[in-house]
Q: What sequence folds into this?
């Protein structure tokens, strides 16, 4: 609890600054909603916001699940087959260089208006950090330990499942924490490119309809979602990797 | 602690050779690590190898373990269990799971491996710590778990690579006595690599002194004292002190 205090303090300072800037006469109300206006929007449009947040959350969670499965499969394959690693690593990096907002409309065109392209975008954006974290983790096993396992006659499968994969857990969680916090961006871009519902869609409409407080309310919910996912992954990590904090 | 086992006189033990190295050479690119090492270890014998850092001691053990092949010469050795300098315990397994790891790697089922490892904890002074994760054990305890892991597959030859180098000197002395008793209870042919002359003489039947790189055996010293040895009496024994001087001289110190 005590460690949360500085974070709360900084948040309050940021809120105060936001309030202050929003109170300037020279700032157009259409550009910047004040914290109180945002709060009112959060309260008044509660149902609308929550319904759409739920849609986005489902996209984020399913997309993350796809990213985790794909990252595991590719990282293990790349780890076991050296030529595959050499061949696939540049492509893996290249997949991150493609601007997601360019890709989003293409995905929507290629698939449809439904959840498909959103999942693809979430998975694409969060896949990279998870895969890289896993790959680094798999390679983090000390050479002496692998030598020991070899001298004990351990099979390749045994070394992978009993030594390398557990040893890769910290790397996996580091990657997942980054992946989970950027996953929200993927969902929003997917919705911006074409959707019937979701927070990204709501923010886009709010902008066009000059409902600035609602736009800010949507952004607040998105950030809470990202922070919440990050915290959830950290909790899971502490449960799954107790030795990381204790060694 | 374990009952004292029957000790065969050295001359009788020597008749069966467990490990034989003949003219073993090993080089890594431009570096000549080993230049013609000859060494024989009898069944049940404990032989310590001492030498300066980088003289190829660890390479020698890996050759005997079959983890490397020599560039020239011959290595004859039975199936060996190798214990590296670091304990290398897996933090996600408890102490019992770590001790059982070698059995599991050899194909024994997890529950069966744990069942077979369990009795050793009481015998080796770790009773009650079976479920403790390694990061909550002291350095000496971790080393004991690592030793149990080495012992459990039942291989006839133990290769110990500076097993106590990372411990503080008091814990190291304690662990040396512990190892002496453990090997009395579970007699194995043992090759012990160390850079500590006193440790070598205290634990071994015979000490092979290696030269600086390129390494070769420059002296072999018999330790004519019965094992296991009471620590204080042994290290102050005139014969022991004399051997120590000879070993240090062979090392050029």
A:
């Amino acid at each position: 609890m005590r460690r949360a205090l500085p974070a709360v303090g900084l948040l309050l300072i940021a809120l105060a600054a936001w309030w202050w800037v929003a109170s300037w006469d020279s700032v157009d109300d259409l550009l910047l909603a004040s914290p109180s206006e945002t709060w009112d929007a959060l309260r008044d449009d509660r149902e609308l916001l929550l319904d759409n947040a739920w849609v986005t959350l489902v996209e984020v969670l399913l997309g993350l699940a796809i990213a985790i499965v794909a990252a595991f499969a590719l990282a293990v394959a790349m780890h076991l087959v050296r030529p595959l690693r050499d061949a696939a690593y540049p492509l893996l990096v290249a997949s991150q260089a493609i601007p997601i907002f360019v890709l989003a409309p293409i995905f929507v065109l290629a698939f449809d208006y439904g959840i498909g392209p959103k999942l693809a975008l979430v998975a694409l954006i969060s896949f990279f950090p998870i895969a890289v974290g896993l790959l680094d983790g798999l390679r983090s096993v000390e050479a002496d330990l692998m030598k020991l396992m070899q001298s004990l006659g351990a099979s390749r499968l045994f070394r992978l499942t009993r030594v390398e994969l557990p040893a890769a857990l910290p790397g996996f969680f580091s990657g997942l924490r980054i992946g989970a916090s950027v996953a929200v961006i993927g969902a929003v871009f997917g919705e911006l490119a074409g959707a019937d519902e979701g927070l990204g869609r709501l923010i886009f409409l709010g902008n066009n309809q000059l409902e600035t407080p609602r736009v800010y309310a949507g952004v607040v919910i998105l950030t809470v979602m990202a922070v919440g996912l990050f915290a959830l992954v950290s909790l899971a990590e502490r449960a799954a990797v107790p030795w990381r904090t204790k060694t | 602690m374990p009952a004292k086992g029957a000790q065969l006189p050295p001359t009788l033990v020597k008749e069966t050779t467990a490990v034989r190295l003949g003219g073993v050479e090993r080089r890594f690119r431009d570096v000549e690590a080993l230049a013609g090492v000859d060494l024989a270890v009898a069944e049940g014998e404990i032989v310590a190898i001492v030498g300066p850092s980088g003289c190829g001691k660890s390479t020698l053990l890996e050759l005997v373990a079959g983890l490397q092949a020599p560039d020239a010469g011959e290595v004859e050795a039975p199936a060996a269990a190798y214990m590296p300098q670091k304990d290398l315990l897996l933090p996600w397994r408890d102490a019992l799971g770590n001790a059982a790891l070698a059995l599991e790697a050899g194909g024994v089922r997890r529950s069966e491996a744990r069942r077979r490892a369990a009795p050793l904890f009481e015998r080796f002074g770790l009773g009650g710590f079976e479920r403790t994760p390694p990061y909550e054990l002291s350095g000496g305890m971790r080393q004991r778990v690592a030793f149990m892991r080495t012992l459990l597959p039942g291989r006839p030859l133990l290769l110990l690579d500076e097993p106590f180098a990372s411990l503080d000197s008091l814990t190291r002395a304690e662990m040396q006595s512990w190892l002496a008793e453990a090997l009395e209870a579970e007699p194995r042919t043992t090759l012990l690599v160390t850079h500590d002359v006193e440790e070598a003489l205290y634990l071994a039947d015979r000490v092979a002194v290696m030269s600086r790189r390129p390494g070769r055996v420059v002296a072999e010293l018999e330790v004519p004292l019965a094992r296991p040895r009471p620590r204080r009496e042994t290290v102050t024994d005139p014969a022991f002190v004399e051997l120590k001087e000879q070993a240090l001289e062979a090392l050029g110190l």
In short: The first strand of chain B starts at residue 17 and ends at 28. Chain B has nine helices and nine strands.
